[in-house]
Amino acid sequence: MSKKRRLIFIAVWVLCAAAFLVSSLLIGSAQKSETIKEAMRDAVLHETNKISFFGILDVNPAVVSAYTVTFLILIFAAAVRIFFVPKFKEIPGKFQLLIEEAVGFFDSLAKSNSPHKNYFLGSYVFTAGTYICLGTLFELLGLQAITTEGHSISLPAPLADINGAIALGVTSYLIILSGGILGNGFKGMLSTLKEFSLPISMSFRLFGALLSGLLVTELVYYYVGLSFALPVIVGVMFTALHALIQTYVLTMLTAVFYGEVSEKTPKKDKKTRRKKI
Question: How far is Cα 70 from Cα 92, in angstroms, rounded to an integer?
Fold first, then answer.
C-alpha cells in the first residue's frame, strides 16, 4: 500500500470515529425502561427478566443458555464420534489434531496433578473445561430471547447465574470426594469433608469472575454515549479472557485437590510405634 493510500485510509477511519463520537454526544442518554441500578441488580438476581420455558414455568435466562449450550455440545460430540472418529488417521489432519490436542491437554492435566486413582478424572475435567469455555463464549453470539414482559434480551453465559456456578462447583467437589474414597476409603472421605468451604470457594470464584465481565458490559451498553464501539472491545476481551482463565483454574483446582485426597496415606509400622512408646 502506497503512502498516499495509507493516509487516505487513516483519514477515513478518523472521520468515521469522529462521526460516531459526535452522534453519540448529540443523541445523549435516551430514556430507559429501568435504571442502571435495576439493570445491574437484575443481571445478578434475575428477578424481572424471566423467560417462559415451553409455557411450563418462568426461568432465568441462564437456564435457557445452559440447555442450549448442553444441546449444542452433545450434537457436536455425536457428530464427531459418528462421522469423524472412524476416519481418523495415523498422520492427523487439522481437525483431528485439534481434537487430540484438546483431549491430550486435559488428560495430561489430570495425570500430572493426580497420578493415583485417576480413572475418570481426565474425562471429567475435559467435560467441565469444555462446558465452561464454550458456555462463556456462548455469550458472544448475542442470541435474543423474549421475556415474559415482552422485552428482548441477549442470553447470558450459563455460569453467570449463581445457581449454575454452584452446581458446577458442587459437582467438582463430589468428584474430589470420590477420589478420596477410592484412594483412602473412609479416611479419605473424612479428609475431603473437612474441606467444606471448597465447593463454596470454587462456585463463587467462577460466578464472580464471569459476573464481573457481564456487569461491566451491561454498564457500558446502558449509556448510549459509550455504546458504539467500546462494548465490542470490552465484551470480547472480558469474555475471551474469562473463558480461558476460568477453564484452566477450575480444572486445575479439581485435579490438584483430587490428587491430594486420592494419594495413599502411608501406614505407620507397628515396630516404629512400639519404639516411640
Answer: 28
